[in-house]
Design a protein that fits this description.
Layout: E1 6-16, H1 20-32, E2 38-41, E3 58-59, H2 72-82, H3 89-96, H4 99-108, E4 130-131, H5 137-148, E5 151-153, E6 156-163, E7 171-178, E8 184-194, H6 224-232, E9 235-237, E10 246-248, H7 256-260, E11 265-267, H8 279-286, H9 297-309, E12 316-318, H10 326-337, H11 341-349, E13 361-363, E14 377-378, E15 404-406, H12 418-438, H13 449-469, H14 485-499, E16 508-509, H15 511-527, H16 536-561, E17 572-573, H17 581-584, E18 586-592, E19 599-605, H18 615-626
Parallel strand pairs: 1-2, 1-8, 2-5, 8-15, 16-17
Antiparallel strand pairs: 3-4, 6-7, 7-8, 9-14, 9-18, 10-13, 11-12, 18-19
Helix pairs in contact: 1-5, 1-12, 2-3, 6-16, 13-16, 14-15, 14-16, 15-16
Length: 633
C-alpha cells in the first residue's frame, strides 16, 4: 500500500461525476456557495465524458414556456403516461419548471441551436425536443463547470462513499484512485452530490466479441450512480424499471429524429403496419393504457417483439420516402455524423443507403438509468412546495443519507429529463446542498484515517491478488486463484441475460428464474473478492464490475418484488403476465443493509399531484417559480 500515495482534499461540496448532471451541479454550487470550496471528480475527462460525450443532435426536454408551447404539468402527464403511471410527479414537475432556463443558458454559452426561420423559436423535432448542432455540446457545458469549480479532478474513479463517524447516517465524502498514477484520493466533504452514470453492460449486449463496446447507452457508464448509494445504505426506487430501446440494428443509432422530424415509420418484412395487429393482445395485458396517446414506448416495443417472435421480422424503418427530399436526407445523415458515427459506418460497410434501402431496426438489451425514459434510481426528497410528506425530508434531491444528494441517472422517479433535465437536476441538487451546509447540518463531521485506510486496502486489493496469483498460471489465462474483470463481466451479463429478462429469453423472467439469478449473483459477489487486476486500467475495470454487480443485485430484487408485468416490452414476468393496478399501482423502494448485504423491500404510494383540479394552482406556481427559483431574493 505504501507505493500508492494518498492525497487528502477537504471541501464543502463534492460532485461525483462530470457528465451533464455533474457539470450542472458544479456550475450551480458556485452560484449559491460563492465562498465555498467546490470539487468535481470525473472518471474520464470532463470535456468529453458522460452520455453526451460524442455529441447529441437534439435537446429532448424543453418546455418552451415563454411561447406557450408546453407547461410543466403537461410534461408530467407525458412522463406519467409513458411510464404506465409510475413516476414521482413532484420531481418531474420540479425539473420541468426550471429546464427552460438551463437551455437558454446553453444558447448564451454558444451552443448552436437550430431556429425556425419564420417564428424565431427553437426548431422543434417533436413536442418536447428541439434540434441543435451538438458535436460540441459537452465541451461547451464543461467549460462552465471548469470555471466554477475550485478544482476538477480528471481520471479518478470514485469507488466508495465515506460516512461520518460522529453522527449516524450522514455522508462524509468519498474515496477513489487515479487511473494514470495509481494514487489514492480521499475527498472529505460536507455535502456530496452523486452525479455518476447509470448502468450499461449489466445485461449481455447484442454486440459481442469484437463489437461488445457497441451499445446504445454509454459503455463506460457502469452503475456507479447506484452502487455508491446502495453500498452506503441509501434507499433506491423503481430499479426494476429498466429500459429497452428500439434502435437501428448493429450501430444502435437513435431513431428519434427520423420518427419525429423526418416522419418515417416502421413496417414488418412484408411491408405491413404490424403494430395494429397486436392491439387486442396488448389490451388483454394492460387494459386502457394501450388507448393512451401517445402510445407508451414499452407497448410499441411489445408489438415489435411479438411481431418478431411470430416470424414477421426483420422490422424496417421506411426511410426511402423521406430521403427523396434532399434537405431531409442531409438531416438524416448529419444526425449520425454528429453523435453516432458508428451507425453511418455500419451502413456504409453493409452497402445500405437509406435513400434506396429501408434499414433494419432491433430492440436493445436492457439498460438501467434514471436520466432517460425510465425511473430507476435513488429515493430522494422532493421540493418543499410540491412533495407529499412521504416524498419530503428537508432538502431537495437529498437521498435517505444526510448530506448525500443526487442528480441525473442517480435520481429515481424522474423520467424523461434527458441531457437538459439532468443538468437542471444537478442545479437543483447543488442549490439544496449549499443550503444544507449553510444551515450547519454538516457541523462536526468526523472521518477517521482508519476508515480511509480500510478503503484504500480494499481499493487496491485486486492488484495484490493478481501479483500473488499470476504465478499459479502454467498455461493460458485462467487462474485457480483469481477472476479477471472481463471474465467476471461476461459471467454477470450471462446471469442477467438468462435469468433477469434479457435478450436470450425475449425479456422474459419469473420468480424461480429471479431466485436462481440471485443465487448466482451471490456466488459472483463472493468470487469478486478475488478479482485480479494487472494494471491501473484493469483496476478500474474491476471496480466497474463490482459496481455493476451490486446494481444488478438491486435490479433483480426489485424485479422479483413487483409481481406484475407493468412494462411489457421492457420485461415480462411470465408468472404475472398482466398489469395489476389493484395491487401494484405504487412505487417500489429497497434498502440494502451495509452490514449484512441483505435487501428489504417496501411499497410506497404513487401520488398523481398533477390533474385537472390542480392545474390552475400548479400553473401559477410554474410561472412564479420557473424564472425566480434560481434568483436569490
Amino acid at each position: 500500500m505504501a507505493k500508492h500515495k494518498t492525497h487528502y482534499e477537504d471541501c464543502d461540496v463534492l460532485v461525483v461525476g462530470g457528465g451533464m448532471a455533474g457539470t450542472g451541479a458544479t456550475f450551480e454550487a458556485r452560484h449559491w456557495g460563492r465562498d465555498m470550496k467546490i470539487i468535481c471528480v470525473e472518471k474520464a475527462n470532463i470535456d468529453r465524458s458522460g452520455a453526451v460525450a460524442q455529441g447529441l443532435y437534439a435537446i429532448n426536454c424543453y418546455m418552451g414556456m415563454q411561447w406557450g408551447e408546453n407547461q410543466p404539468e403537461d410534461h408530467v402527464r407525458y412522463a406519467r403516461n409513458d411510464l404506465m403511471g409510475m413516476v414521482r410527479e413532484d420531481l418531474g414537475y420540479d425539473m420541468a419548471r426550471h429546464v427552460d432556463s438551463t437551455v437558454h443558458m446553453f444558447d448564451e454559452w454558444g451552443l448552436p441551436m437550430m431556429k425556425n426561420e419564420e417564428t424565431g423559436r427553437y426548431l422543434r423535432e417533436g413536442k418536447w425536443q428541439i434540434m441543435i448542432h451538438g458535436e460540441s455540446y459537452k465541451p461547451i457545458v464543461a467549460e462552465a463547470a471548469k470555471k466554477s469549480a475550485d478544482k476538477i479532478y480528471n481520471r479518478i474513479m470514485i469507488t466508495h462513499l465515506l460516512m461520518d463517524e460522529s453522527q449516524e447516517n450522514r455522508v462524509g465524502g468519498a474515496v477513489g484512485f487515479n487511473m494514470r498514477t495509481g494514487d489514492f484520493h480521499v475527498f472529505r466533504a460536507k455535502a456530496v452530490i452523486v452525479a455518476a452514470g447509470g448502468a450499461s453492460h449489466i445485461f449481455k449486449p447484442r454486440a459481442v466479441g469484437e463489437g461488445m463496446g457497441r451499445t446504445w447507452y454509454a459503455p463506460w457508464s457502469n452503475g456507479s450512480a447506484y452502487a455508491l448509494p446502495i453500498a452506503a445504505g441509501a434507499k433506491m426506487t423503481q430499479m426494476e424499471n429498466r429500459i429497452v430501446l428500439c434502435r437501428f440494428k448493429d450501430g444502435y443509432g437513435p431513431v428519434g429524429a427520423y420518427f419525429l422530424h423526418l416522419k418515417t415509420y416502421t413496417q414488418n418484412a412484408n411491408g405491413e403496419n404490424y403494430e395494429k395487429k397486436w392491439y387486442d393482445q396488448t389490451k388483454e395485458l394492460v387494459g386502457e393504457y394501450i388507448d393512451h396517446h401517445p402510445t407508451p414506448t414499452c407497448l410499441r416495443n411489445h408489438a415489435f417483439i411479438q411481431e418478431t417472435m411470430a416470424g414477421g421480422g426483420p422490422i424496417h424503418m421506411v426511410t426511402t420516402e423521406a430521403f427523396q427530399d434532399p434537405h431531409l436526407e442531409t438531416v438524416g445523415w448529419e444526425n449520425f455524423l454528429g453523435m453516432t458515427v458508428g451507425q453511418a459506418v455500419v451502413w456504409a460497410s453493409q452497402n445500405i443507403d437509406p435513400k434506396y434501402t429501408n434499414p433494419e431496426l432491433t430492440t436493445s438489451e436492457p439498460y438501467v438509468m434514471g436520466s432517460h425514459a425510465t425511473c430507476s434510481g435513488a429515493w430522494v426528497s422532493g421540493p418543499e412546495d410540491l412533495s407529499p410528506p412521504e416524498y419530503f425530508w428537508g432538502y431537495n434531491r437529498m437521498l435517505t443519507i444526510d448530506g448525500l444528494f443526487g442528480a441525473g441517472d442517480t435520481v429515481g422517479g424522474s423520467a424523461h429529463k434527458f441531457s437538459s433535465g439532468s443538468f437542471t437536476e444537478g442545479r437543483l441538487a447543488a442549490k439544496a446542498a449549499v443550503k444544507y451546509i449553510e444551515d450547519k447540518k454538516a457541523e462536526g463531521l468526523k472521518v477517521s484515517d482508519k476508515q480511509c485506510e480500510d478503503f484504500k486496502e480494499k481499493v487496491f486489493k485486486p492488484l495484490e491478488t493478481y501479483t500473488v496469483a499470476q504465478n499459479e498460471i502454467t498455461g493460458g489465462t485462467v487462474s485457480p486463484s483469481y477472476i479477471s474483470p472481463i471474465q467476471g463481466l461476461q459471467r454477470l451479463q450471462r446471469i442477467m441475460d438468462e435469468y433477469v429478462g434479457g435478450i436470450a429469453t425475449n425479456y422474459m423472467t419469473n420468480a424461480n428464474m429471479l431466485k436462481r439469478g440471485l443465487e448466482l449473483l451471490a456466488w459472483l459477489e463472493e468470487d469478486l473478492e478475488n478479482v485480479g487486476a494487472e494494471d491501473y486500467h484493469q483496476l478500474m475495470r474491476a471496480w466497474e464490475l463490482k459496481h455493476r454487480a451490486l446494481t444488478s443485485q438491486c435490479v433483480t430484487e426489485h424485479t422479483m418484488f413487483r409481481e406484475e408485468t407493468r412494462w411489457p416490452g421492457y420485461y415480462y414476468r411470465g408468472d404475472h403476465m398482466k398489469l395489476d393496478d389493484d395491487n401494484w399501482h405504487c412505487l417500489t423502494v429497497s434498502r440494502r443493509d451495509p452490514q449484512t448485504g441483505k435487501f428489504s423491500m417496501e411499497k410506497v404510494p404513487v401520488y398523481h399531484i398533477v390533474d385537472e383540479n390542480e392545474k390552475k394552482k400548479l400553473h401559477s406556481n410554474s410561472l412564479r417559480l420557473a424564472y425566480g427559483y434560481f434568483v436569490k431574493n
